[in-house]
Amino acid sequence: MRLRARQHRRNGFVLVVVLGLVLLLSVLLFGFNHKTLIRLDTAESFREFEQALHCARAGLGIAMAAIRDANDLSDNPRFAKLRTGQETFSVGDGTCSVTITGADGRLNVNRLKSRGGRLDRRRIEQLLRLIDLINRDRVGSEHIGYSLVPALIDWIDQDDEITQLPFVNRDNQGAENRYYATLTPAYPCRNRPMDTIEELYWVKGVTPEAFAILRDLLTTVGEGRININTAPRLVIECLSEQMDPVLTQVIIQQREVKPFRHVAELKEVPGMTDNVYETIRDTITTGSDEQHYRVSTRGKVGDRICEIEALLRRNSKAGNVDIIQYRES
Q1: What is the pLDDT of residue 108?
Q2: pLDDT digits (tens, 9 = 90+) for 271-318
Q3: CA separation for the pair 327, 314 (Å, rounded)
Q4: Exposure of 111 in the CB half-sphere (CA atoms within 13 A)
Q5: How many CB atoms are closer than 10 A to CB 195?
Q6: 133 to 67, 103, 218: CA distances (angstroms)
Q7: Measured between alpha carbons, how far is residue 318 from residues 71, 222, 286, 321 in Å?
Q8: Of 75, 104, 175, 183, whose CB has the highest number of CB atoms within 10 Å?
Q9: Are strands 218-219 and 107-108 parallel, antiparallel or unpaired?
Q10: Is 3.40.50.720 the CATH number for 2-103+291-328?
C-alpha cells in the first residue's frame, strides 16, 4: 500500500511538473507570437509609410515638371487643377494629390525695412490694411493686433531696439530679445530676414489661428513687388486704401479670362481710376524672370499619409527649377 501511495504521489508530482512546463511553454509561445505580430504590424506600417512618402515625392516631381514646362503656371489651362489641388494621381499602390500656388502674389515680410535699414512705410501700411481686412472677415473671432507689424520688423532687423511706428496710434509695440527671454521655453529674437514663412509662428502676437490665415497671405521670397496675376483677394484689396472689394473682384475676374501681361493693362479694368492706379503701379508686377511657387503634396497608401511642403524657384531664362525649402510631415 505504501509503495502504491508513493508511486501515485510521484506520478502526481510529475504530472504537475509537466503541466507547469506546458503552461510555461504556452505563455512563452503566446508572447513570442504577440511580439511577432507586433513586429509584422510595425513592418507593414513602415512599408506603407515609405510608400506614402514616395507617393508624395512623386507629386513633388509632377509639380516641378509642370512648373518647368509652363512659362507661367498662372495662365496655363493644362495645369488648372494643380492650382486648386483637385487632381489626384495614382502611384503604385497609393495616390498623391498636388497643389501649386504662386508665392510671388503675397506680401513679403522681409521687405518691411529697406536694405539700408529704413522703414518702408508703403509696405507697412499695406500689411496694416491686410490685418484690417482679415479682422473684417472674422467677425466674432479673436482679432489680430497691429502690434504684429512692429514685432515682425523687430524679428527681421539687426538691432535690439523695440520698434514703435510713428504713424500708428494704438497697439503699437514690437518685441526684442528681452521679451522672448521671458517665454517658456525661451528663445532669441531672430534679428535677420526670415528663411521660411513658418518662422512667423514664433513672432510675438501670432496665435495658431492667426498663423493659419497669414501663412497663405505672406511670403519671405521675391523682389517685393506683388504679382497681380496670382495675388489672393485680400492682398489685392490691401494694396491701396482706395481699392474696394468690387474693383478687387473685377481684377480677379479679368485675370481668370486673360492674365495681365503688363501692369499698364490694369488701367483698362472697369472701375480703375487714375488715382488708384498711381497708388499701386509701383508695388505690383505681372511676372518676372524668377518665379516662386509653394507646393503641397499628399501621398496616401492605405491609412498612411505623408505630406510634403516645398518652395520652388523657377528661372525663366535658364529654365531651371530649384527646391529652396523642403519639409516632410
Answers
A1: 95
A2: 999 999 999 999 999 987 788 888 999 999 988 899 999 999 988 777
A3: 19
A4: 19
A5: 14
A6: 31, 20, 14
A7: 12, 17, 19, 9
A8: 104
A9: parallel
A10: no
Cβ atoms within 10 Å of 274's Cβ, excluding its own: 8
Task: Report pLDDT for 131.
Answer: 96
pLDDT of residue 318: 78
**pLDDT for res 76:** 66
Q: What does the alpha-carbon distance between residue 312 and residue 289 come to, in Å, rounded to a whole number?
A: 14
C-alpha to C-alpha distance for 131 and 138, rounded to whole angstroms: 11
Residue 267's Cβ-count burial label (10 Å; 0-12, 13-18, 19+) is middle
Going by DSSP bridges, is the β-strand pair 107-108/304-315 parallel, antiparallel, or unpaired?
unpaired
User: Is the CB of residue 313 less than 8 Å from the CB of residue 291?
Assistant: yes
As a whole number of angstroms, the distance between CA 323 and CA 312 comes to: 5
The span from the CA of 179 to the CA of 170, in Å, is: 19
What's the CA gap between 290 and 326, in Å, rounded? 18
DSSP bridge partners of 314: 291, 321
Q: Which residues pair with 138 in a beta bridge?
A: none
pLDDT beneath 70, residues of the chain? 1-18, 20, 22, 24-44, 71-78, 84-85
What amino acid is encoded at 234 in this protein?
L
> Residue 150 has what pLDDT?
96
pLDDT score at 117: 84
Q: Which helix (H) or strand (E) holds 252?
A: helix 245-257
pLDDT, position 4: 58
